[in-house]
Amino acid sequence: VEIGRIATQSQGITGIVVGPDGNIWYTNRIDNTLMKAVPGEVTSTNSYDHAQRIRIFPNPSTGKLYIDMSTLTLEGETVITLSNTSGQNLLSFDDVTSSMQLDLSHFSAGVYFLNIQNESLSIARKIVLKP
């Protein structure tokens, strides 16, 4: 059931969902990103440039996932979290380096969201784990 439509200044917005914890999530099909809108937080910044400079591979993955942020200057404390499609946080890393390897082999096959956040960026990427 469609309740209504929201006009945005961004092309590619395809869905807005309110999660079980009250967070508002939206997807952008052009950028292939999932973002969380936080009340009082600026939702449009230069994060598009940051998003293009972060490499996460292979995706889909069988369990080993590599994150390369070596072309970025990480400002402040950077946190990486992995959540499921229900928004439940499954992993959290606050000892983040510019190049990391994650072992996700103990998770079931399916869709997950990898969130990278610090003072200057907030990026979410869809991760597909396959058997």
Report Rg.
Answer: 15 Å
Please tell me the overall pLDDT. Answer: 83
Task: Quickly give the CATH architecture of the domain at 42-129.
Answer: Sandwich
Strand order of the largest sheet: 7-6-9-10
Percent helix, as a range, is under 10%
What is the succession of H and E elements?
EEEHEEEEEEE
**Poorly predicted spans:** none
Largest sheet: 4 strands, antiparallel
- Fold-level CATH name of the domain at 42-129: Immunoglobulin-like
Task: Give the N-to-C terminal Cα separation.
Answer: 34 Å
Highest-level CATH class of the domain at 42-129: Mainly Beta
What percentage of the residues does DSSP assign to strands (E)?
35-45%
Number of strands: 10
**SS content category:** mainly beta
Explain the overall architecture.
The protein is mostly beta strands. The strands form 3 sheets. A 4-stranded antiparallel beta sheet has the order 7-6-9-10. A 3-stranded antiparallel beta sheet has the order 1-2-3, with no helix packed on it. It has a domain at 42-129: Immunoglobulin-like (Sandwich). It has one helix spanning 47-53; strands spanning 13-18, 24-28, 33-37, 55-57, 64-68, 79-84, 89-93, 99-103, 110-117, 122-129. It has 1 helix and 10 strands. The protein starts with 12 loop residues before the first strand and ends with a strand.
